[in-house]
Amino acid sequence: MAPQGVRDPVLTGPFSGPDPSANNELSAYMEAPTMLNTASSKAEQAGDSTSLVWLARAGLITYGVVHLLIGWLAERIAWSAPAGKSADTSGALKTLAREPFGGFLLALVAFGLLALALWQVSETFWGYKNREPAERARKRLTCGAKAVLYAALGASAASFALGSGSSSSQSQKQATSGVLAWPGGREIVEVAAVVIVGVGIALVVKGVKKSFADEIDTSSMSPFAQKGVAILGQVGYIAKGVALVLVGGLLGYATLNFDPQKAQGLDGAMQTILAQPFGRFLLTPMALGFVAFGVFAIIQSRYRKM
Question: Which segment of 85-89, 230-234, 246-250 scores lowest on mean pLDDT?
Fold first, then answer.
């Protein structure tokens, strides 16, 4: 035993008792996974919340309205519109901007599309839990791509609401020109063109096979209404898929010829159809297809499985 006033090195050594600071660090280390799980659980609950679901349904309505306007503009280009009209997203948003309370309408469109993007983000991380791993991964990847698309459309609507929107066709030309100037830029644009064509083909297949029917619950509809919704979905998906194939084809052509002016987006695809023999009669079904997709999207706002 050490003399009085002298600490015994044995009793005060490394095994003399627990170090309070070490206990605190250990507790914090053990609590970290619990805190992360709690945060993840709260985020998942937010993704499944009724409020977000209703906002996403409102977003589907705005998404449908945008397609209705694109179809209407395409029909006008085919038959009566003066030069300078654009049958694409920017053209649709410009049309809304010119209406009474246009800024307010565009703000609603932007809000709805961003809510739709947020819902797709939640599906990307927590959706399709009951599916097989490979199918779940594919579905979640698709949701992630849709989230980016809806967010971009929402941002575009917001920029038009603020008075700073620009032509989609002109933006794509500038972007293509910029990327082609990068090292390996030609290959990047070629891959983008192939991806766009692939998405277009997938939409056509989805329309032909009516696989979109798995995403909506029409059990409360009459058989006649169910058939009508199926026709709208088929026509809409096929028309949109064909348009995307043309967009990707024009982008690929622009890349092969190092001519960014050929990368004209959806409006360029519409103009290409119009320039063909009997172009008006070819463009009209395309316009009606976009209208059908718009109506289908609005119907989805009520019957989409969420």
Answer: 85-89
Query: Would you state the structure tokens that stand for residue 208, as one six-digit string?
Result: 């032909």
- DSSP assignment of 166-219 equals --HHHHHHHHHHHHHTSTTHHHHHHHHHHHHHHHHHHHHHHHHHTGGGGGB--T
DSSP structure string for 116-154 = HHHHHHHHHHH--TTS-HHHHHHHHHHHHHHHHHHHHHH
Residue carrying structure tokens 């199918």: 135
Instruction: Give the span between the Cα atoms of 250 and 272, in whole angstroms.
Output: 9
Task: Look at residue 41 and tell me whether its pLDDT is greater than 70.
Answer: no
Residue 60 contacts residue 116 (beta carbons within 8 Å): yes
Condensed to tens digits (0 to 9), the pLDDT of residues 150-182 reads: 998 899 888 888 877 666 666 667 777 777 777
Which two structure tokens, joined as six digits, stand for 110? Answer: 């932007």
Determine the Cα–Cα distance for residues 185 and 223; give it in Å rounded to an integer.
51
Concatenating the DSSP letter of every residue in 248-301 gives HHHHHHHHHTT-GGG--HHHHHHHHHHTSTTHHHHHHHHHHHHHHHHHHHHHHH
Question: What is the C-alpha separation between 246 and 250, in angstroms, rounded?
Answer: 6
Tokens of 184: 């390996």
Q: How many CB atoms lie within 10 A of CB 124?
A: 20
Answering whether pTM is above 0.85, one says: no
138-152, 173-187, 200-214, 270-284: least confidently modelled range: 173-187
Judge whether 268 and 90 are in contact, CB under 8 Å.
Answer: no
Give the closest residue to 46 by CA, choosing from 126, 129, 146, 147: 126
In which region does residue 187 sit, left (phi positive, over 0), alpha (psi from -120 to 50) or beta (all else)?
alpha
Q: How far, in Å, CA of 185 to CA of 233, rounded? A: 36
- Which candidate, 265, 288, 247, 300, places its Cα nearest to that of 116? 300
